[in-house]
Amino acid sequence: MSKTILITGASRGIGYETALKLASENHTVIATARSKDKLQELSKAANNGQIISTPADLTKPEDIKKLADAVAGTNGLDGLINNAGVVHREAFMDTDIEVFKKLMDVNVYGIVRLTQAMKTHLKKGSHILNISSMSGYQGSLKFGGLSAYGTAKAAVVGLSEVMSAEFTDENIAVNCLCIGAVQTEMLAEAFPGFEAPVSPQQMGDYIANFILTGHQFYNGKVLPVALNDPG
Ligand SMILES: NC(=O)c1ccc[n+]([C@@H]2O[C@H](COP(=O)([O-])OP(=O)(O)OC[C@H]3O[C@@H](n4cnc5c(N)ncnc54)[C@H](OP(=O)(O)O)[C@@H]3O)[C@@H](O)[C@H]2O)c1
Fold first, then answer.
1. 54, 67, 77, 174: which is deepest, by most CB within 10 A?
2. Ligand 1: does its nearest atom lie under 6 Å from the Cβ of 205?
3. What pTM did the predictor assign?
4. Could you give the number of structural domains in the chain?
């Protein structure tokens, strides 16, 4: 049966591939990111299903409203994938507090703003999936230079667990995937020359399947999805 899924960070990388995979399986995908042109490319690339591309900056409340309006035009959400994120690599002692605030604003408060706005549109039996990182997974080996990123991604872990505690009675599942290195532009920008063992297509396929079926097996779970440690 066709589902309706909202995914953030769909203009490139993992989000783009996840959206394509869902569309290829005839699901309706509300795809968002700031880059309007890249979202249009995504719509063209999708052969099946329906991509409703809605440009939005997750740090702007007026853009969150645009997304809520787009979703209000559907029959409700079966899934919400909070995938958008930004990275910053710099030694902790050189990282300005403003960088920490910026990464929190996109990676964490973006999820807060969007999920609060989408809550009334999430159907019973729906699934919220927050994409964190091994950088925020307790006990994993860490890459140096990712203090602001790791702080934000660890916050996504805690946020996901509390959201699950509050939404379970309403039959809305919340899970969090802490993913390892995937060969995207984000990774190449932060770690030039590093070769990740997983492609964006592979991770996109995994996430597309997980948003559709993962909540049959998991709720309130924080799962590492990584071949190596670190990342
Ligand atoms: N690649 C990895 O190795 C890796 C590892 C662990 C975790 N992750 C996580 O996986 C997710 C996807 O990563 P990726 O590698 O695919 O990254 P990416 O290629 O850099 O894509 C990031 C996406 O987030 C969107 N975005 C950034 N700032 C935004 C904002 N203010 N408002 C709305 N959208 C915004 C970008 O679109 P616009 O620029 O068009 O807005 C883009 O579509 C991220 O949460 C990342 O932290 C990635």
1. 174
2. no
3. 0.98
4. 1
